[in-house]
Amino acid sequence: xxxxGFLQIYNELEKGNLKRCITNLKKYCxxxxxxxxxxxxxxxxxxxxxxxxxxxxxxxxFLNETKHKQWLLETALSCYKDIDWFFWLDCDEVLDANGTxxxxxxxxxxxxxxxxFPEITLWRSExxxxxxxxxxxxxxxxxxxxxxxxxxxxxxxxADLFPQGLSSIGNCDFNVLHYGYATYEAIVERWRExxxxxxxxxIRKKGLDESQMVLEFVSSDLFPEGCEPLRxxxxxxxxxxxxxxxxxxxxxxxxDYVHDWISLKWREGHLNPLTFKENKELMKGKILFLGCxxxxxxxxLSKYCEELVGIDINKEALEKAEKxxxxxxxxxxxxxxxxxxxxxxxDEYFDGVYAIDFVEHIYPEDFKLMLDELYRVxxxxxxxxxxxxxxxxxxxxxxxxxxxxxxxxxxxxxxxxIKDYLNLNPKFEIIExxxxxxxxxxRPKEKHNEWRVILRK
Length: 457
Description:
Largest sheet: 9 strands, mixed
Number of helices: 13
Helix content: 25-40%
Radius of gyration: 25 Å
Strand content: 25-35%
Number of strands: 20
CATH class of the largest domain: Alpha Beta
Structural class: alpha/beta
CATH topology of the largest domain: Spore Coat Polysaccharide Biosynthesis Protein SpsA, Chain A
Shape: elongated
């Protein structure tokens, strides 16, 4: 009895999914066939090294996935004449421990030609599943090779997930563990992918709004060997939202786009480099810079730091930042793709944190989460430096333009408003608070009217 693993991939090696999936499939599959939809990260080479049969697409063309699946099915049947069953997984999935151990025995006793498997969607964690969105689905994953299998060719995302030709279908109790939403970064990338492939905004928005999220704990016993959960903390609800045009994408309360237009020369004339110079005494030790984007502000901040970490939710922007720092041979700085609401750093890791024109992009309901997370990663006695516009017409301006999710989420019009937000974490001590009004030292000659706050842990 022979089982053939069946999957499609695109740049799954760099995401950390491919090795986990292939390791799992090899425990119960005799063969593995894969359609690589134009990967550029070495996924094809890895699959070949692991003994998989690979069809390599010349470019990413995921909207023709049913055409690719039919091609893959025909290739598998041509290469391996003795296939009894096909088992389909996506690369961000694994079969649970019971299924990994017993799928072959299940196939030997099966009296149906196809079987649905329940799916567990891990949500911003490796131990919690989301029940109100994608959390209770099931998919037809196991197909008997009866000589009649064929995909209906249709254009579009997930137009046909499984082949036609199965005469009888049943249910299997083995679970499939889905890691596609298991980290904040994966959720942001999933949003971008769905935007590219034209999935309706309202469908996507529903899943990204966690205000009514329902989570259930996933027992460690369900995870196969090598996939034991490391992050067991229950995720706190965060509001995710994205601009409707698919161009400006805001996630977790931050701006998620690339500031391509900001050059080092432009930034040099801005107020930020002067602010860094004036406050260099606060930059001793290991410093965190929030919302670094393409790294132009980080470049000037790095001159005063022993060790600097810049974070942003936009991977493309960070790639540009890394390129900039490599060109200028700056070695005291590294960049991490993550949200300011959920960071992969240990407790009391940083001596100081800089939030320059950052906090106004946080959703009001997430502001406490941000302060709590920054308090966690700061060392005792460490400083949090905040500089944010005193007032902005950005919200009203973008609403008039039809944006349902403006860039600036909070309008700090007066002292009471900003102090009410700062006091959401009363453990911080306010050691400096005031308004700073001045003009850029160089071009562009732009006037700034901003709150300047220093908090201490």
